[in-house]
Write a structure and sequence with these properties.
single chain; alpha+beta; five-stranded mixed beta sheet; 9 helices; elongated
């Protein structure tokens, strides 16, 4: 059973590392799963403080969003929209957040309901993203929201956006863009 191992592991961890530097704890915590971190957080006050500090450093949603939104104001506005419109971040960015890793050139996949899409779409255009229509999509994304387009499985459609990375000169063959895909749901199954 995992529980006895977990208890033994926590006792061993606590006794052998109790007097070590916090930086070593951070390196060690990186190899623990999220559930194990939350269990270890309840061992004692010191571990609570150490793991809370680790989580706020390495599981930082703002850090995840920085490649797509270049200022703290843009990040705050996006997170406020996420709270108000109840959309989800999924795909490789969600996996990176959970794994506490960073992968080069990953896009941002956002699952959103049709009724909330226009506000997020307007925000993306305001901060400098450009719409990249795919085959059979009009050049204006608002027209897609109002039109009747064939569904892609359980999704109504996907809207692709891109934005030039700051300080990058556009040349052939380099990855100068960041991408956001809005995956628009047919119904409200994504609602919280």
């Amino acid at each position: 059973s995992r529980r006895p191992f977990c208890a033994y592991f926590i006792i061993l961890l606590h006794s052998s590392l109790a007097d070590k530097a916090s930086s070593m704890h951070g390196e060690f915590f990186h190899y623990l799963g999220t559930v194990t971190l939350l269990i270890c957080k309840r061992v004692c006050r010191r571990w609570y403080i150490e793991i809370t500090s680790y989580i706020s450093t390495y599981m930082d949603i703002d850090k995840l969003l920085r490649p797509f939104f270049f200022t703290p104001d843009e990040i705050s506005a996006f997170r406020l929209l996420q709270s108000n419109l109840r959309f989800w971040i999924s795909g490789s960015q969600a996996l990176q957040f959970i794994a506490r890793e960073t992968w080069e050139d990953s896009d941002l996949d956002v699952y959103i309901e049709l009724t909330s899409t226009e506000k997020l779409l307007q925000f993306l255009l305001e901060v400098g993203f450009e719409f990249c229509p795919v085959e059979h999509q009009p050049s204006n994304p608002i027209d897609i929201l109002k039109g009747d387009y064939p569904c892609i499985r359980e999704f109504r459609f996907v809207l692709k956006f891109r934005r030039l990375k700051p300080g990058v000169v556009l040349t052939r063959g380099n990855s100068s863009w960041v991408y956001v895909d809005l995956i628009v749901a047919r119904d409200s199954k994504f609602a919280c």
